[in-house]
């Protein structure tokens, strides 16, 4: 089985994005680049900075590009639709939702969309979840699975 290393997130404002991921997820900055290989420049024209952050044993590559397309993710196009974060309890699920609302209300970040988190819902199997967006408009699901599977 493969071992996934990181997910790359393109942003129009790396400082805003990095601050939010630090404050919301407790992300730790590992390194930053501002010079790139010809391959990277050919794949990501206009890339200016890239920062790797760790959240536990998971990594994100946050990168800023000039000429960023301001259209929001979504719609009916091929894309990674959302990222799911598992929680250990219903109380933890509520804390994640409350923390998002607190950070949004602080006014310290620019959000690409004004959408608030969904309510926490429970499906027929007892799985609880809510959905929300990061500062770039990328969707996250937070889920509590009672038996952990």
Structural summary, described in words:
By secondary structure, the protein is α/β, with parallel strands linked by helices. 23% of the residues lie in helices and 32% in strands. It has helices at 14-25, 38-43, 90-106, and strands at 6-11, 28-33, 47-55, 58-65, 83-87, 121-122, 128-133, 139-144. The strands form 2 sheets. A 4-stranded mixed beta sheet has the order 1-4-3-2, with helices on one face. It has a 4-stranded mixed beta sheet with strand order 5-8-7-6, with helices on one face. A hairpin with a 5-residue loop joins strand 6 and strand 7 (128-133). The protein is globular, with a radius of gyration of 16 Å.
Give the structural class.
Answer: alpha/beta
Strand content range: 25-35%
Number of distinct beta strands: 8
Main sheet record? 4 strands, mixed
User: How would you sum up the global shape?
Assistant: globular
Measured distance between first and last alpha carbons: 19 Å
What sequence of helices (H) and strands (E) makes up the elements? EHEHEEEHEEE
Q: In terms of per-residue confidence, which ranges show pLDDT below 50 for 5 or more consecutive residues?
A: none
Count of DSSP-assigned helices? 3
Helix content: 10-25%
Q: What is the alpha-carbon Rg in Å?
A: 16 Å
| Order of neighbouring strands in the sheet with most strands | 1-4-3-2
Report the average pLDDT across residues.
93
């Amino acid at each position: 089985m493969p071992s996934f290393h990181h997910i790359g997130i393109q942003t129009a404002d790396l400082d805003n994005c990095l601050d939010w991921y630090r404050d919301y997820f407790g992300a730790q900055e590992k390194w930053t680049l501002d010079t790139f290989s010809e391959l990277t420049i050919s794949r990501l024209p206009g890339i200016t900075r890239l920062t790797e952050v760790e959240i536990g044993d998971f990594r994100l590559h946050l990168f800023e590009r000039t000429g960023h397309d301001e259209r929001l993710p979504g719609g009916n196009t091929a894309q990674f639709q959302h990222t799911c974060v598992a929680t250990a309890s219903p109380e933890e699920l509520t804390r994640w939702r409350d923390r998002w609302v607190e950070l949004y209300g602080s006014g310290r970040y620019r959000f690409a969309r004004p959408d608030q988190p969904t309510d926490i819902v429970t499906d027929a199997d007892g799985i609880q979840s809510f959905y929300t967006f990061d500062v770039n408009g990328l969707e996250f699901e937070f889920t509590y699975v009672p038996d952990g599977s």
